[in-house]
Every structure is written in structure tokens, then in C-alpha cells.
């Protein structure tokens, strides 16, 4: 994993992005050089058009989910995504090279070559996604511990990163009963550093069930780090591997003395400018869609088109969130707040569709303009549930240190849920966002939101 602007990315993901962008730029340069006489004209044209096409392909591939882990995605699903991406990419490639100067010969051939290049990139992206999932090469990880915590780390790692290889579990000093597969316990009486070197370990995850009373061999761990082996505690491991902060394995000291939670004036100003510009653009682009939605809601059932509900925002202040009405007007006729659930019988037919593709959230762009919300942040919750969740879940109030968002890290990383357990899972993603949020992470969330809408996955 590599940390880019406070956000952890797989090294393989960065290589995929650079490969695609580099291939497009260099191929376009070669194509144009063959058709344009004189490098003085050819190089600037090739560079500007190549970079434009590369940028468009990056956005399309990101929004299609091709730079996300693919081990849980079938080949048919990847092909379907590639077809949808090509429906956008091919016209864009043709359009970009339609702006070549009239003095350039063979413009149609250049356009055809650019479209062929785009198709080749998409085919390679589908192939690479599934070829890499079968690759056995990856990070060699030693889990320091053999108890329940170590078992949890091992299970999580296998599900989250198919390229990581667990070489084994090294028992802690006070761990007598292993709760991991005995065949993977490394008990050859060697020291931690000798065992790590013997097995070619790249990273050690400290996952001891008991960390008091001398159970943490700091000298041995330091020796491992001096020898170039990464050593991470369990909270950091979950943060970088899963993109979440596990409330069950973190303490206030780790949050206080670690990095992150940067809420400076520059970041606040930059985020506000980004929110205003993007929300204005999105309102203009989606105005026809919002008009059609309003008409459809009015035709299906009586009642207001828009729905306003009190939510908790920045610093626990309340505001009225605006959404397209997706439920019957008597959804809470008894006056008691209820969790929204998947397949909720209170949802209308139009409401079911607009919720699935997130159209019901579009009026919240006006909340963004008013400064009550941001485009990206933890989803705002109702005061009734906030009081309950704050009492039950540690660190829940931390999510209110930033503005709530129209979309968020939890929404693109976790499926739909409406229980206390779901709230805990989503909070752990929200904590990751609050700790590490930057403009870069906001862009990542927005790209992944497009992929969630296209595939119908994710949470609300």
C-alpha cells in the first residue's frame, strides 16, 4: 500500500493508472508524428490531444470501477462495465481528435486510430483485472500473534487483498492457546527477526490479544524495522487495508497522537470552493432530470414533490435536508422514527427507482450551496438516531467534526444497512474519512459514487 495525499492506495492500482495514461499519451504521439510533417507542430498537438484523451479515460475507468479491487467481480461483470465505458470513450476519442487543425492530413485515420487505441486499453483493462487476480506474487506478511485478534486479521486480509500472502503466525509471549490454523503457526523456537528474515517477510502486523505485562517484545520489533521490514499495529493495518478505523481496536491515544484530522483554514476554504463550483455545475447538468423526476412523483401519488427532514450536521447543529419524496406521505403516521431499510414497503414505485440510482439525493445540492452540507462527507442522520448511536457507539460524535455529505466514503464502501451493527461498520469508514479527508479523497469518492450508481451497489 502507498499513501497518496493521506489516502492509502494499492501499489498495483497506481501502476495500472500510470500504464493506461502512459500508453495513451505515447501511442497518440506516435500516431500524430506519422501523420503530421514536422515535429514543431506534431509534438504540441500530440501532447495536448493525448493528455486530453488520457484524462478522459482515467475518469471513465475510475467511474467504471476498473481501478478498484476486482477479485470479487466476475469476467462477465467486467465485460459489461467495459462495454458501458466504451459507449462514452469512443465518441469522446472521436470528438477530441475532431479539433485537429484543418492543415493536418489523414484526420479520419487519426480518429480511427485513437478509437482503436481506446478499445485496446479497455480490453487490456479487463484482461489485466482478471489476470492479476490469479497472480500469486504479492506482499509477504507475518502476523505477530496467534489468538482471536490474529485470527481476525488473517481472515480480513484474505478477503481484502488477494495479492497478500500470509507466511504464518508468530505466537506472542503470553499466548498459550492458538486460535489460528495450527499448520500456519511458526513455532520453530527462532526469534521474531530470524523467523521474518527466513521467510522473506515484507511486513509484520502486530495482532496480540494481550499487550500488557511485557507481552510486547519492543526490541525484536525494532530489529525487524531496522532490517527494512515494515511493522504496523492492528489499528493502522485496518486503516490502510480496509480504509476504515476499527472502533474495537483503536484507543483515544492512537487518534490523538497519530496524524490526520487536519481541519485547517486552507483545507476548509478549498473544500468550500470545490463544493460550490461542482454543485452549481451538477445542478445545471441535472436540471432536466430533476424536472422529469418531479413530474413523475406528482403523477404517481399525492403529496409534496420534495421532502424535508431534520438532520444533524457540522458541530451537532441541525438543518433540514432536502430530497425528492420517495415514500408515501404516511410513512411515519405513528410519529415514531424508523430506520429506512432495503425493500422498505413504505417506498413508492418511482421512489424505489430514484433511490436505487440516487436521483432522490440531487436536491441536496442546494443544501451544499447553502453551506449546510458538502458534496463528500458522512451522511447526515436524524437527531433521534444520533442520540441513540452516540450512547451506544464509541467515537460516533467525531463524524460531526466535518460537514455531512451528499455522498461519502461509507456509502461507496459498504452495502445498504439499517441495524446497529451496520451503523458501526459505516462509522468506521466515516472515521477514516474524517481522519484522512483531502480533495484527492473527495475525488476518489465521487468517482466511486458513479460506479456505485451504475452497478446499483453500496449504501445510503
TrEMBL record:
Cellular component aspect of the GO annotation: membrane
Transmembrane segments: 12-34, 46-67, 79-97, 109-127, 276-297
Membrane topology: Multi-pass membrane protein
Record-annotated Bacterial sugar transferase domain positions: 271-454
Cited InterPro entries: Bact_transf, EPS_sugar_tfrase, Sugar_tfrase_EpsB_2
UniProt-listed Pfam families: Bac_transf
Keywords: Membrane, Transferase, Transmembrane, Transmembrane helix
GO molecular function, one term: phosphotransferase activity, for other substituted phosphate groups
Main location class: membrane
Domain of life from the UniProt record: Bacteria
UniProt subcellular location: Membrane
Family: Belongs to the bacterial sugar transferase family.
Protein's UniProt name: Sugar transferase (PEP-CTERM system associated)/exopolysaccharide biosynthesis polyprenyl glycosylphosphotransferase
Species name: Roseateles toxinivorans
